[in-house]
Amino acid sequence: MTDGVQNRPLQPLRPRPEGTPPVSRPGTAPVRQGAAAPGRFQELFTQALDEQRWGLKFSAHARSRIQSRNLELTPERLERLRQAVDRAARKGARESLILVDDLALLVSVAHRTVITVLDGKQARENVFTNIDSAVIT
């Protein structure tokens, strides 16, 4: 019975010629060379710790909105947001509008992910669709 493996002597490995990009296997991400952008590791590390602490993720869009609109998410607000997401989850909500003080947050309750954030003025000028619940905290 043949298992498809041939017995032949191993060939020594030859170094890759200078300037040749590394080869990646099909279905894998290409190999990246070089250092990450300065501060990027710290940013990712801090984000991971925050996700563990609050049990919530923030989409790139939500993070961008918070930063561009100079919105403040204090630890007290984050705790209230976490509790609101927990309450919405217990009621079976999937997509929720959560109001925390003067902030309106659209949250994927099932994924515990903040999708976007608006301040009070912007929230009053909007129509929110595709939500199945609202939590005021």
From TrEMBL:
Keywords: Cell projection, Cilium, Flagellum. InterPro entries: Flagellar_put. It holds the Pfam family Flagellar_put. Residues 12-24 have a biased composition (Pro residues). Residues 1-37 are annotated as: Disordered. This is Flagellar biosynthesis protein. It comes from Limnochorda pilosa.
